[in-house]
Amino acid sequence: MLDWLRAQAAKRPLWMSVLMLFCVYMAFVYVPWDLLVKPTAADEEVWFGVRFHGTAAKWLAVPHWAIYAAGCFGFWRMKAWMWPWAAVYAGQVALSMLIWPILYGEGAARFALGLVFGALFLIPTLALWRARALFEAPPEPLHKRYGGWALVTGASAGIGAAFARELAAQGLSCVLVARREDELRTLAGSLETSFGVETRVVVADLTRESEMERVLREVADLEIGVLVNNAGVGYAGRFDLQDAARLADLVKLNCLAPVVLTSKLLAGMKRRGRGAVLFLGSVAGSQPLPLHALYAASKAFDNLLGEALWAELAGSGIDVLSVLPGSTRTEFSRRADQLEHAGATAESVVADAIEALGHQPSVICGWWNWVRANAGARLLPRSTLAIAAGKVMETYAQSSDE
Is 295 assigned a catalytic role? Predict the structure, then answer.
């Protein structure tokens, strides 16, 4: 844990980490207490040096909370929009500390106090104003963070192909793994031409354990720095009417293949002290999903495995991320015997994943998917949640006896 904390602190100057911790305290301790516990009659807020009391203070605490919550996220992720707005807000605080003692203090000393307090708070204001380069610094390219080669399973189409294109754009040579050779070779040629990277095509059926081991033999001479466990399949319909062999293949592809590949490739990453492993989970794994029962269970496995490994490997130089997309515009629905429906693009899923990598254990792609993954599971009884999810899935699933 200490190694992870040190790694997080290294992403910004010490004084900025102190400001981030102050924002955390204000957003998660002080302002919630002020809003929810402190009596209205005793409440007080200050804006631009002017004091507000009672109901007005309660209402003005809300933007204070929003600003400090944004500050937590902005400092943590070093977002470009923090400049100039962090300095602007800090300047407002400095102005308030200048005016407040003058307006509400007594005697000539109030002017001196205003100047002293204003000057003190002007220090972080100027520091934030001069930190533009820190906030707007481009992220380090992935090939410099993790090494020269990535392995992407399920790379022939959809999210896997989008991951391969983004990784190649950031300078990583790519091992492309899937069953469809023609699509893989077309993608490989495109990556080599567009980005000047090397590629290696491995045609494999990852529902077979012997093929998983063959993939590992095919890349034994490479230093794989990024592993994207993307290959997966769905299977919609009533569980009691589904084919047992196809169900077993789903578990092998969605669960066993990521376990085998990750287990073997982690050794090299640990030895080199850097690497990244991504698991393509799903918001479907956040709840029971009738008519997609085994698929949802397999994605819950991927979600939890990735988050657990993130904690196990924190501070080791190896970043782990569970990626939880919702409906995505790929061929997945058709292959799962499910009616196709609207969703995000594969490219937007990859963009969310790359942005989150190295910062958090999992990412839910899209605000509506975040609501779906959290609201029901936290607010509804499990029985109600399962029944409601089943009603939704009836809209999309094609029964296996049609």
Answer: yes
